[in-house]
Structures are given as C-alpha cells and as structure tokens.
Amino acid sequence: MAGYNKFILLLLCLCWLPSVLAVDNRLEKSISAKTIYTDNAGLKETNKKGDLILSVTPQLSLHREAARSRVDLITALELNSQNEGGENFNPRLQFDSNWEFYEDHFFLDLDATAMQNSNDPFDSNAFDTVNTGNGVVTTYNMDISPYIVNHFRRYADLETRYTYNHQISSGGDAEDSSSNLFAISLNSGKAFSRYFWGLHYTKEDQSYDETDNGLDTENFDVNMGYAINRSWRVNGTVGYEDNSFVTNRSTTNGATWSSDVTWTPSARTSLTVGYGDRFFGNTPSLDFEHRFRRSVITVSYSKELTNSSRLLGDQEVFQVVDQFGNVIVNPATGTPFLVTSNQTALNDNSFIDERVEGSYTYQGRRMSLTWDVSYSTQTDEVGVNGGVDSTLFDTSLSFSRSLSRENELTSSIRYNQAQEGSGADSDRHQFNLGWSHLLAAETSLDIGYSYSKQNADDMTVFSTANSYTENRISIGFSHQFK
Prior knowledge:
The chain is mainly beta. It is built from two helices and 23 strands.
C-alpha cells in the first residue's frame, strides 16, 4: 500500500500543476458527519446486539482545465467507528486527466479509481459501507496510457496507444493484477462524409500476482459503414481473435464478425441494434435511449468475455452528470456510499457476462423518481462452477420530494438476488426513508431510517447461512465550504 500512498501524492501534485495557466477552475469542498444506531452490529444471524457508530466523511471535487491539460478529481474518505467487522476506512476516488505534451500529436491519459465491492453475495453484506460485515473488498485501480496521433491530411487518422493497468484489492478473494495493452487504429478522416472505415489491432497481456490465471487477448478487425441519411447508419466488422485463458473449452480462437444498425430520428432518440459471432457463440447487442421533456429511459444489452479484474476497473465511482446531461456540481456529496455488486463472486476466473440494464428517470419541478434494473448471466469458464450459469439481479427505486425551500423527503427501495451455479440463492432487501432540512445556506441536517434483510443458503455442509435483519436510525450534518 506504500506505493499507492505515493501515487495519491502524485495525483494531488498533478491536480495543482496546471493551476497557473488554468482557464477553468472549479473546486468544491464539503464534510459530513453522522451518528448511526444499528440493532445488529456486524449483521449477525443470531446473538444480535445494538451499537452506536460515528462516521465522518470529508469530500472534494476539483476540475482544472488549461490550454494543454485537463484534470478532474472527485474523492471522499469515510472514517467510521464500526468494530464488528467491516472497514473503518472507506475511500472513494475518481481521477481522470489528459495531458498534451506535443501539440496535436503526443498525449497522456492518467486515471485512477478507488471504491468498495461485495466479495461474495453469500456473506453478510450491507448495501452501504457502514456496518458492512466481513464480505467487502476495497479496490484501487490505476491506468497510465500514453498515445500518439497522426493525421494524414483529411483522409485518415492514426492512433497508437499503450496502456498499463495495475489493480490492488484489499481483503476478500480478489487478487492483485496488472496488464499491458497495445492498440493501434487507423480510421477514416474528415474527407469521408457518408462512408467510414477503420483498421484496428489490440493485444493485451493480463496477469495475477498469486495465480497463473489471466486473460491474454489479441484481436484484429476491419470495419466499414455507411450513413444512409441523417437518421440511419449501418456498420459491419470482420476480424480474427486469439485468446489465452484457463477454460474447459476446446478452442478460444477464431474468426469474428458483427453488424449493427443505428437509428437516430431526432436528437432525443437513439437506437442501435447489432448481431455478431465469436468463439463462444452469438453476440447480440442493443443500446437505446429516449429523452422526453422531463424524463429519460435507457436500455442496453451486451455479451462479452471478461473477468473480475476488468469489471472492477470499468466501474464508474461517481456520476458526474445526471440523466439529462446536466453537470452535478459536487458529485462526492451523494451519501451513503454503496457497496457495489456486479458479479456473483470475486476471483481470477474468466467468464462470459451476458447483461441487460435499464433505467427510467423523471425530474419534475419538486419531485424526482429513478428506477434502475440490471440482470446478468455469468458463465464461469473454469473452477467449481465451470461451464455453469450464475445470475445476478439488482433493482432499485428512489424518490425525492421537495416539501419547501428548506425541507426535502427521500425514500428508496432496493432488491438484490444472486444465484450460484450450484443452485444456492442469496436475497437482500432494503428500505430507506429520510428527511433533509437546510439549516443555513451551506449546512443541512439529515435524519434517516432503514430496514435491511438478507436470506442466503448454506454454501457447504460446514458453513452457516449468512442471513440477517437490521434496523438503523441515523442523524447527520453536512456542510459545504466556499
């Protein structure tokens, strides 16, 4: 962890480096403190006891943009006094930056994230980071990616990129990993208006620190497309892939192809439907979005080869814009911080992830409503569940209502279900009700109640079911500094 402490110091230095020539500076600082009473410390099934937990969370949101650099940093560090399992230090970090070292040609992307994930859905887990039990993993992810861009007049654009990724997981069964990715792309330039084409080559070597499992891939493909008119566009891709990972399959290589159609009848509506084939079978795809005056609906479907390390690295820690594209002024103030769970268990096995996701958001003058749903089928390529489908279903409904200028009512319901290939089930429910009162221009009082319940089957004859119920009351203050 000493290496990551030095890296965090480097990030802070890079945040302030472009300040002299910055043309856009936005800095938001805030702090929140909570007193939480739970009737089930450590989320036990039997012998429950109450506990009082204190939590303090300083938060920072920074955006700096200069002529040849852009830096975005959002971080929140939660400190709490829980002593029945779980973590007393819960970091949240999202750092994105781009640096231009040679005009229009040589660039560097430097990114980092930190957040907490559920290690195993069959452990006693809370939905948020306070009083979590023992099944939580803190993941630190870093990407360093230099790349070179060349323009061949208006006919073609060439990008050559190298990306180094390093991931550290603290706790649980997730292993530290690193990868090296080399990618080169030649795409059609501005001279091609209705026709577009591209040549792409990628090679990635991923390895884990403790095991020989990894996911090494090499891909080459050619794509061509045509914009029929402003509303319709078609695209086709053919290529070849060479993959190396631990699996029960007889082959992991072969030709690939895909095609898709995009329909954009207006600026508010976009639909892309595709179909393809890889070594593991067909690969349908769907991406739909429609914006009404006060609401947005989105639906997506994908099927791909991946593993725990890649899913952890692809997570978005903070939402920086809302569903309507409006910038969230201080995204780090969204408490409580959730423990995410987008896969059935964290390990080093590769699997086929078939995922459907959807959301609906309504934003009225005094009321907002958001519904999210996700369903994933994950086919483990090796291990105790090799070749067997596991599923994860998650849905949540949140509601907020402004009662006056100083008062706001919030409520949410969330349900999560995981099923292993062996047939064991884990179900979790949570209900939240909260009230927020603005004490002063930058200070607010928050009072909340939540009820949580988990029912989980025994994984082995030697284990006990990880089930619990919890009632929780919280009182907190938050202040934003100017």
